[in-house]
Write a structure and sequence with these properties.
This protein has 3 helices and 9 strands; from the N terminus they run H-E-E-E-E-E-H-E-E-E-E-H. The protein is an alpha+beta fold. It has one domain (23-157): Protein Transport Mog1p, Chain A (3-Layer(aba) Sandwich). It starts with a helix and ends in a 5-residue tail after the last helix.
Length: 162
């Protein structure tokens, strides 16, 4: 009988846990010079660094588990596959790169391994719109779990990962 009661209590506790993304809202980035929106935590901070006609660097950050960076520039190529291939090559050239975790149509999630105890994840998402290229990734500072990176990828792609 105790087993049944304990099992019911545990089931109630775990079923009441909320998804941290449930309070994420659509964040329109047009006022920051980016003509699309992403999903982000309600209290996310947006910082813009504009380097003239070269590149615009927009970061969206909330705490230690949400840090997205968008680099906007003139498109060098209008072929998504080509741009994605270039991004893959850049990531794979890092000496700590260990594997591609998910290869997706407009981007990918990857793993970096400094040693067996230090595993970090990252993502790249590419958006080509008009004559502009938007390279979206996790922020350069910080260490992220695969789950955190997957949620960030979903937030910018607006597509659930399977």
């Amino acid at each position: 009988m105790r087993f049944v009661i304990i099992s019911c209590l545990l089931l109630m506790i775990f079923s009441c846990t909320t998804d941290p993304t449930s309070n994420w809202k659509e964040l329109d980035l047009l006022s920051h010079g980016i003509p699309f929106s992403i999903n982000a935590p309600d209290s996310a901070q947006v910082d813009v660094k504009d380097f003239g006609t070269i590149v615009k660097d927009v970061t969206i950050k909330n705490g230690k588990d949400y840090y997205v960076q968008i680099f906007a520039s003139d498109a060098r190529n209008d072929n998504l596959e080509t741009v994605k291939k270039e991004q893959l090559e850049e990531v794979k050239s890092n000496p700590y790169f260990s594997k591609i975790v998910k290869d997706l149509p407009s981007g990918f999630i990857y793993e970096s391994k400094i040693d067996s105890a230090n595993i970090n994840y990252g993502f790249k998402y590419i958006k080509l719109q008009g004559s502009k290229e938007y390279l979206i990734s996790n922020g350069l500072i910080g260490s992220f779990s695969e789950e955190e990176i997957s949620k960030m990828y979903e937030s910018v792609s607006k597509t659930p990962l399977k």
